[in-house]
Design goal:
996 residues, alpha+beta, 41 helices, 59% helix, globular
């Protein structure tokens, strides 16, 4: 019995042990070479992982039990006096130790917690849940088949109960096999998100942009693919022109850290390093946050401020391992700069003031090297000091100008002068002097970021970037951590402002916090992208709120209820740990079973802590093996000057995976290319689409630039380009000549629009279905309306009418109508909507045959309404079932048969949607969409498989693990053959013969 008890206790110890390898493993991987000479391939990975896991658990269990047994057999029974413990002495030494080193623990706990959270995507824990769902679904399907055979007439509700009962019995009887299947399935799923070395792919889009530049730095010393005019030049962006490659902290730091780590471990890869970077810097953010909050409310304030930084969901989601973008620097450097500047303000002698101030200036310079929005911290400091000087003026009046007598003003001068001077030097060193002197004006450019149209009348793509969408107050509160967190933070601020002794001592810090809070709050309202900037100040105020509550309220409360103040502090700390989601009483469960409860989940069961755990556990890369394989195929089967065309989102992946140039990408999306690519996707004229791609591949948008230099009119230049891109070079030259373009300019324009284009690969992927409203909006951009909005909104009616008559040939009625419409527009979003529509796909539904297979019915959703369309398979007539004759047909019906692709239009009395019926894997499906999308190039390529098109040949087709379809088309510039229909059913054959 005693042995069983001991064994039970030992098992519990094992069960509750925390696996710190998930924190330290990725770091050790940098400096520790692999045991094996060669890394196993993906096909070997599952076998290797299973054997290693089994060996580890066997060896670990054996060693643990051996050690435990030895502790009982090798140590003789000791004298009771030798076992006596002086409790007071232990307490004294423990108290002394934590008094001396406790601050180190208070700093390290948030740091390691932050790092632990951020490194979970490396292990893809969500794969365990996916695998369990897959295995459960498979087993239940098998059980259901057997039940259906045995009890075919049993009601479904009864069948479900039987399925659940049999499933539970199966799991209980074959638990080991069940777990093995889950593990095998999870390993297979994980392998799709890892490269050949076993490294998890980077999560998002931009990390591949930075990593490609870092690879160039490692390969030949700078970010460029080549050197042009003495500067590094990126040949992969804005094809075929390229652009200057940026030189940034993120790129260089990643490249140099890789070279340092690679010296110790030759197996380390650049992706290993870039996966770690956000986790490292985000974890370091906890340190300056600790010291700023400690300045306000002591160590407790510092600890809770750091914990808030560590687990804030918004900050965490943008700084998990693999999200290797600049977001971590946008928090890290402001915290460091403001910490150093605050230390300078509160230093007790001039040497320290100058030293801290100079360090803050250096950090400001490095921040300018890391992010172009660096100026906001510099401006905050200048604004705070200005407000403080006003405060001194109000309080001391004219005496403030007596510099010899006013010590406070001297201290400010000693701090501010070196900060401005050193900042200027280092911003100039890392950027240029112009960046520094223009920093006070940068907020003006920030305000213009979401104007509907540029002054050139081209569309502003930034208006559609999701992370730049306006943010509501409730969204900001939720991003900070919720109402309770905000209330505690406001109490901290309130304590600082209202307590006289605190206000006098901390007035400079209060002003900095208020400016920081106001500036970042305003930025947050302008876009979700900027909410991350407000998190540090709220975290510090939250820590201050807790610290002030403990410091000011505990002494009197402890005396009243006669409790030791130290005990009261511990109680309050535990309470606030519970507030942010920790619990001292873990939920019981199995901590070892794959896919079961984990130790960290047991202690992090609700609130912000639970949200943080959920985010870190659920992150998976968007980039998968399927993307890697298809882009590698492009690389291996194309020339080096080949160009990849698509919407901008995945441009960074194309550059990295295929090593080929792209039309535009996430670093260049706000260019005229957005209109041209949108129009190529939207147009129903294949020759126009190919003409656009040829123009882009010949000269990007320089053909427009050259033409507009002559015409000096945006909408006329664009209209003329629409006309000539569908012509051959000779016809285009004649058209230019008719429009008064000088002969000596025509050949230069044609070189940029009608060259012999390089190889072209055109990508259509399933994500573009949901983005159709965006690319359709820019593709249908109305330049006349853009000019009317840009130039006429501030004119009076008569001036505007004359302008529209002279410029566009509008009659007085149309001109007055447009003028009244633009006067009614009050926001840039409304102007965007007026200039161009947002054509979108509504839904995709299934279809089935009926009535001796002579009719096909398809169910699709239009909002909340389910609609049934019925297609006559012989005549290809399409109606909406059970409706009156009026509006019983879609505005446009797209379909295919053996003769190719067809469009039927119903202009009068029609349902205001387009419908396309296509085949996928032998089944009919229907897509409901805006009418202008029914015949678009994207619809024909993605949904209809390119049937009937002659310039687009399918190059590769992939379906990713996360369900994306990826189609890559190679453009046949000569258009030799049309793609044939894949239909062989009797109805399309019959319809085809009838048409003949």
């Amino acid at each position: 019995m005693a042995e069983d008890t001991a064994k039970s206790e030992e098992d519990k110890e094992d069960e509750l042990s925390i696996d710190f390898s998930k924190v330290t493993g990725p770091v050790k991987k940098i400096f520790k070479k692999k045991q094996e000479e060669n890394m196993p391939s993906k096909n070997q990975e599952h076998i290797h992982h299973t054997e290693h896991s089994h060996a580890y658990h066997t060896e670990h269990s054996s060693a643990h039990h051996t050690g435990h047994h030895a502790s009982h057999t090798e140590n003789p029974e000791k004298d009771p006096e030798e076992l006596s413990v002086d409790i007071k002495e232990v307490w004294r030494k423990t108290y002394h130790f934590f008094s001396k080193y406790g601050i180190v623990f208070l700093i390290l706990i948030p740091f390691f917690f932050a790092f632990f959270l951020r490194m979970q995507p490396e292990y893809l824990p969500i794969a365990d849940h996916w695998a369990q769902n897959n295995v459960d679904a498979y087993l239940k399907a098998q059980i259901e088949q057997e039940i259906n055979k045995a009890y075919p007439n049993l009601p479904q509700e009864n069948k479900n109960k039987l399925i659940d009962n049999e499933f539970a019995k199966l799991i209980a009887s074959q638990k080991d096999m069940y777990q093995q299947q889950i593990k095998a399935n999870a390993d297979r799923l994980r392998s799709d998100f890892k490269d050949d070395t076993g490294q998890t792919y980077l999560l998002e889009l931009d990390p591949y942009h930075w990593m490609r530049y870092a690879k160039n730095v490692v390969d030949h010393g700078d970010e460029g693919d080549m050197t042009k005019d003495g500067s590094p030049w990126d040949t992969h962006m804005l094809a075929p022109i390229g652009k200057t490659a940026p030189t940034l902290f993120h790129i260089r730091f990643g490249a140099y850290l890789y070279e340092f780590a690679h010296f110790f471990n030759r197996d380390i890869t650049l992706m290993n390093i870039f996966f770690l970077l956000p986790a490292i810097f985000a974890s370091l953010c906890t340190v300056p946050a600790f010291f700023i909050a400690r300045k306000i409310g002591g160590n407790v304030s510092g600890f809770f401020a750091s914990m808030m930084i560590a687990m804030n969901p918004i900050f965490l989601s943008r700084t998990v391992g693999g999200f290797s973008d600049t977001d971590s620097y946008n928090v890290f450097f402001p915290l460091v700069i403001l910490w150093l500047f605050i230390e300078a303000l509160y230093a007790d002698d001039n040497k320290k003031r100058i030293a801290y101030s100079a360090l803050a200036g250096i950090a400001t310079g490095i921040f300018s090297y890391a992010w172009e929005g660096w100026w906001y911290v510099f401006d905050f400091i200048m604004a705070a000091i200005g407000i403080y000087c006003i405060y001194l003026l109000v309080r001391y009046g004219k005496e403030i100008f007596n510099f010899e007598k006013n010590a406070r003003l001297k201290e400010i001068a000693v701090v501010l002068a070196p900060y401005i001077f050193i900042s200027g030097i280092f911003v100039t060193l890392f950027r240029n002097f112009r960046w520094f002197i223009h920093s006070p004006l940068q907020p003006l450019t920030f305000l213009q970021i979401k104007e509907a149209s540029h002054t050139t009348f081209w569309p502003n793509v930034y208006t559609t970037v999701a992370e730049l969408n306006a943010t509501s107050l409730s969204q900001i509160v939720d991003s900070i951590g919720g109402n309770l967190i905000v209330v505690i933070a406001l109490l901290g601020l309130f304590s600082l402002i209202t307590l006289k002794e605190e206000r006098e001592k901390a007035i400079k810090l209060i002003i900095i916090l208020l400016v920081w809070l106001a500036g970042t709050f305003y930025a947050s309202t302008e876009g979700m992208r900027f909410v991350i900037l407000i998190i540090p100040v709220w975290s510090i105020l939250f820590g201050a709120g807790i610290g002030k509550m403990i410091y000011y309220r505990l002494s009197s409360a402890a005396k009243e209820i006669q409790i030791n103040s130290a005990v009261m502090k511990v109680v309050v700390i535990v309470i606030f740990l519970i507030v942010i989601g920790f619990t001292p009483l873990p939920k019981l469960g199995n901590y070892e079973t794959e896919g079961g409860l984990k130790m960290y989940e047991a202690f992090c069961r609700f609130g912000m802590c639970r949200s943080a755990i959920g985010i870190s556990m659920d992150e998976v890369p968007m980039y998968t093996d399927e993307w890697s394989n298809t882009l590698q195929k492009v690389k291996e089967n194309s020339k080096e000057d080949a160009i990849i065309n698509s919407w901008w989102d995945f441009g960074h992946w194309f550059k990295w995976g295929a090593d080929r140039a792209v039309t535009f990408d996430g670093a260049s999306q706000d260019r005229p290319q957005a209109h041209w690519m949108g129009k190529a996707l939207l147009t129903s004229d294949e020759k126009e689409a190919v003409g656009i791609l040829r123009m882009l591949d010949c000269g990007a948008n320089t053909g427009f630039d050259a033409l507009n230099e002559e015409l000096k009119n945006t909408h006329k230049s664009v209209d003329l380009l629409y006309e000539i891109i569908k012509m051959d070079a000779k016809q285009a030259g004649e058209a230019l000549r008719k429009n008064n373009v000088p002969d000596d300019k025509i050949s230069g324009i044609l070189k940029k629009t009608h060259c012999e284009p390089p190889e072209n690969f055109f990508v259509t992927s399933s994500d573009m279905v949901g983005k159709a409203g965006v690319w359709g909006h820019f593709g249908s951009w109305n330049f006349e309306r853009a000019m009317i909005w840009g130039d006429l909104k501030n004119m009076n009616l008569e001036e505007a009418k004359r302008y529209m008559k002279d410029e566009f040939g509008y009659d007085a009625g149309i001109a007055e109508k447009y003028y009244k419409e633009i006067q009614a527009l009050s926001t840039e979003k409304e102007a965007n909507d007026w200039i161009a529509p947002w054509p979108s796909y509504a839904s995709v539904g299934g279809c089935a045959l009926r009535k001796n297979d002579s009719e096909l019915y398809c169910d699709v959703n239009a909002g909340e309404t389910k609609i049934r369309f019925v297609r006559n398979m012989i005549t290809n007539d399409l109606i909406i079932e059970n409706t009156a004759e009026k509006n019983n047909r879609p505005a446009v019906f797209a379909y295919t048969d053996n003769a190719g692709f067809h469009i039927k239009e119903h202009k009068e009395n029609s349902f205001p949607y387009g419908l396309g019926i296509y085949q996928e894997n032998g089944e009919y499906k229907a897509v409901l969409m805006a009418p202008e999308l029914a015949g678009s190039m994207f619809t024909r390529l993605y949904f209809f498989g390119g049937i009937g098109l002659q310039y687009f040949d399918l190059f590769d087709k992939q379906k990713s693990t996360v369900g994306w379809d990826i189609d890559i088309w190679k453009v046949d510039w000569q258009g030799k053959d049309k793609n044939k229909a894949a239909f062989e059913d009797k109805f399309s054959q019959l319809a085809y013969s009838d048409q003949q």
